[in-house]
Write a structure and sequence with these properties.
Low-confidence stretches: 207-212
Strand content: 5-15%
Number of domains: 1
CATH topology: Rossmann fold
Shape: globular
Number of helices: 7
Distance between the termini: 33 Å
Order of helices and strands: EHHEHEHHHEHEE
Largest sheet: 6 strands, mixed
Radius of gyration: 17 Å
Strand order of the largest sheet: 3-2-4-1-5-6
């Protein structure tokens, strides 16, 4: 039994490019973001990967990334389940603000704390702890049972919703999670043991597709 779980952050969005706090706002992918998603699909196909089901958020940048990955794999009609539990963290009052402008207004230290601490939320928004409080129950109740039944599962979501998952899968602490960056459009390939812990993890090397 394979017990395959692949996590993929969406490709670059228009607001990533502009260095804006995005959260639950809903910008589209850039041309680079589309290319990143397609590259992820080609790499997974090249590894002989096939999926039985996909999960994504209620936001277009993750949904479109999911669709593009599956399209490149020849699985465009795959069952895909959308749920806001997988949405990016809500950045509250920071949403739509340029990150450099936010640093000028509140200072580097405060903005860094909002972005990277585990349990300090930005004004009106969610901390990573808050994000995990909705992501992890959904994972445990809905996604994990399908992985453990032998289905091959793709989750296309966001930097912080995936950080919440990776924190648990990789056994990270509330301190070590602060330094984790999840790159856009690069799949994290997990294979789980029968006790739901990680058997192996593979991360796509950015240089693997030299012809891109």
């Amino acid at each position: 039994m394979e017990r395959l779980l692949v996590l993929a952050r969406h490709g670059q969005s228009e607001w990533n490019l502009k260095k804006l706090f995005t959260g639950w706002r809903d910008p589209e992918l850039t041309e680079l973001g589309i290319a990143e998603a397609r590259r992820a699909g080609r790499w997974l196909k090249g590894q002989g990967t096939q999926f039985d089901v996909a999960f994504t958020s209620n936001l277009r940048r993750a949904q479109n990334t999911c669709s593009l990955i599956l399209e490149e794999m020849g699985q465009g009609g795959l069952e895909t389940i959308r749920n806001e539990a997988l949405n990016e963290r809500d950045y509250g009052d920071l949403s739509g603000l340029n990150k450099d402008d936010a640093r000028e207004r509140w200072g580097d230290a405060q903005v860094h704390e909002w972005r990277r601490s585990y349990d300090v939320p930005p004004p009106g928004g969610e901390s990573l702890k808050d994000t995990a409080a909705r992501v992890l129950p959904y994972y445990i109740q809905t996604i994990l049972p399908r992985v453990m039944s032998g289905e091959r599962v793709l989750v296309a979501a966001h930097g912080n919703s995936l950080r919440a998952l990776v924190m648990v899968l990789d056994g990270m602490t509330t301190k070590t999670i602060a330094s984790l960056e999840i790159a856009t459009g690069i799949p994290l390939v997990y294979r789980l043991k029968a006790d739901t812990t990680v058997d192996s993890k593979t991360v796509l090397d950015k240089d693997i597709d030299q012809d891109d």
